[in-house]
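User: Some background: our group keeps a shared notebook of sequences we're curious about, and every so often someone picks one and asks for a predicted structure to add to the entry. Today it's my turn. The entry only has the sequence so far, pasted here. Could you supply the structure so I can complete it?
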Amino acid sequence: MPDLTPEPVPKAVPDASRRSERSRRAIFDAALALVSESGYARTTIEGIAARAGVGKQTIYRWWPSKAAVLLDAFLDLQVRAHEAMDGDGDGGSEIPDTGDLAADLKRVLRATVDEMNDPVFEAPTRALAAEGIVDPDLGARFTETLLEPQLQYYVRRIEAAREAGDVDPGTDPRLAVELLVGPLHHRWIHRTLPLTHAYADALVDHVLRGLAPRS
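Assistant: Of course. Here's the predicted structure to add to the notebook entry:
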């Protein structure tokens, strides 16, 4: 008589990489939420771990401090935001060249204003900017991985405008970028006056008057 005993069903092997990715995502979400809700000073590794549903040793295995957690969480947030906007999955956001430099710069500077006014981005950005002053290593990584790549988008657009004859050939693209974004960040950091689209437009108009080709 044939043996009709069903063969045992093999147990599924846990996917460690997927489990780790879920944990990382939970930790990122918890860190961003706590900084927004309670502020950076009151956010702790223990609080992040509890909110994420992981042990604090899991966090310490991947990051040395809460600042490092927040930086990676913020970088991940930036990548996801850009992917949602451009849909190509590369996390980039080159400034489009429509042939109208003023319009192109106003478009991206307005988007920057919107992001700086968005509580989801504002709280972690302020926390990282402040912590980067007292933690040189964190500050250097923040500049290298986030700030500098964004500034280079502006640099490349102004270089293209210089080649097209839309700005003076003697223009220093990096200096021109600082003239654009420096006042924006100064107003944002010190909260001297509200950040608005009108202010972004005025910055572009004033800077481009100074960069206009000489007769």
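Suggested note for the entry: Residues 7 and 163 are 72 Å apart (CA to CA). Confidence is low (pLDDT under 50) at residues 87-91.
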